[in-house]
Write a structure and sequence with these properties.
This protein has 107 residues and is mostly beta strands. The protein has one helix and eight strands.
Length: 107
């Protein structure tokens, strides 16, 4: 029970991530356990590129308590207009202790 509680507390911790790639900035990420074995990483992305982006993919590695990567959570959007923000949600089908933003890909 104590271990489960520490995992739950870690998931509620909000992280202010600032990452930019190809004109897309990601900030204010946080993870939250959903009902059932689903955990969602959410945050805000902004299109600073000055042009419409056909597709954007934001990828996170998710890790267990030992720091081992156990999977990925990915959010994607089509037709990201310049100067707009996107409240994204990347779902992972399980529980993890930490996450790390690993890539922002645009096409």
């Amino acid at each position: 029970m104590k271990k489960l509680f520490s995992v739950f507390v870690a998931l509620l911790f909000s992280v202010s991530v600032y990452a930019q790639n190809a004109g897309v900035t990601v900030v204010d990420t946080s993870a939250q356990q959903e009902p059932g074995p689903i955990t969602t990483i959410s945050g805000v992305a902004k299109n600073d590129s000055g042009k419409k982006i056909a597709a954007v993919f934001i990828k996170f590695n998710v890790m267990d308590g030992s720091g081992n990567v156990i999977g990925n959570a990915i959010a994607n959007l089509s037709d990201f207009e310049p100067g707009t923000t996107w409240k994204f949600a990347a779902k992972y089908p399980g529980v993890f202790v930490r996450y790390k933003l690993v890539s922002i890909e645009t096409y």
